[in-house]
Design goal:
Layout: E1 17-22, H1 27-30, H2 42-57, H3 62-67, H4 76-82, E2 88-94, H5 108-124, H6 140-154, E3 174-175, H7 178-187, H8 190-197, H9 211-215, H10 241-252, E4 256-259, H11 264-275, E5 282-285, E6 291-293
């Protein structure tokens, strides 16, 4: 939706405010030395991010914050600015969905948390159903059913129950981009591929370089210099880089970004956002202190080995 709206703007007051989360909880990270000191439970990470979203929007009930041991990472200077900023309406999550399917890695405890994270992601994301079937290409009925169910849950008021799982019923909708969206919007759409690769100027079609030269049609293959096109591209032709770039764009342009300090991907997002003037809305999730601001006004330290 953000890409298709030519009038899309991040100016304060625009309707489409969102928070981005990079949840680094793939099984290969759970077993990595960098991951042993990170929060590994996706339910906890999502709940903390939702609390931050409600706090950012100014609608977080104090009893619920106390019950969740939530300490606001929003300082007074930023809170004053929020009065003029657009409200958050959705939660984008960047996660390696394909990598999350490796449930046989590590100890029995890590295998259990990996399975829990997978089930949690499918249950709480509106981009997939509970059985991990993507909803980008599904019928409108299926999309509406999950969206309506989320809207119904979101309209419920906070209960006095201190169980953190109740937070899911009052949270912002969680959506994904990543592999599923790229497969639907790019690899499964030959017309879109041709439109993206075709030069805007006719004379550029004959240039001996560029995307059209690589993928477009030149000749019939009878000469050595002829180039036989490969469109439509086979699925996953560009590997993980294409979904990663799309997720990176969404994270950089989010109103708020929450990442993991041990992740080079999160560090890159924080750094770009800092130099765009968004450092005061850079946060990280932790295992022991909840969500905290990124130090140095949002500019992370150079990423190094754990």
């Amino acid at each position: 939706e953000f890409q298709q709206q030519q009038t899309y703007s991040h100016k304060p007051g625009h309707n489409h405010g969102y928070i981005a989360l990079h949840a680094r909880i793939e099984p290969e990270m759970l077993t990595h030395k960098c991951g042993k000191h990170m929060e590994q439970n996706l339910t906890t990470i999502l709940d903390l991010t939702q609390l931050l979203s409600l706090d950012y929007n100014g609608i977080l009930p104090a009893p619920k914050a106390a019950a969740m041991n939530y300490t606001s990472p929003i300082d007074n200077q930023l809170r004053e600015k929020l009065q003029k900023r657009r409200k958050l309406k959705a939660n984008f999550i960047a996660v390696g969905r394909d990598g999350m399917k490796d449930f046989e890695r590590g100890t029995a405890k890590l295998k259990a948390i990996a399975r829990h994270n997978w089930d949690t992601l499918n249950h709480r994301s509106i981009s997939y159903d509970d059985a991990a079937n993507e909803l980008f290409t599904s019928s409108l009925l299926k999309k509406e059913q999950k969206t309506q169910q989320h809207q119904k849950n979101s309209s419920e008021e906070f209960t006095n129950n201190n169980n953190s799982s109740n937070l899911a019923s009052s949270s912002l909708p969680i959506f994904e981009c990543g592999e599923g969206w790229v497969e639907h919007a790019f690899y499964s759409n030959e017309m879109r591929q041709r439109k993206l690769f075709k030069p805007s100027l006719k004379q550029d079609e004959t240039k001996p370089y560029g995307l059209y030269n690589r993928y477009g049609f030149h000749g019939d293959g009878s000469n050595m210099d002829d180039h036989i096109p490969i469109l439509p591209l086979p699925n996953n032709y560009f590997g993980d880089i294409l979904p990663s770039l799309m997720s990176f764009w969404l994270a950089v342009n989010a109103d708020v970004f929450v990442g993991a300090m041990k992740s080079s991907w999160s560090n890159d997002v924080w750094t770009v956002r800092y130099f765009q003037g968004k450092g005061d809305r850079n946060f990280q999730y932790t295992r022991d202190r909840g969500i905290i601001p990124v130090i140095n006004n949002g500019l992370p330290p150079p990423h190094g080995n754990c």
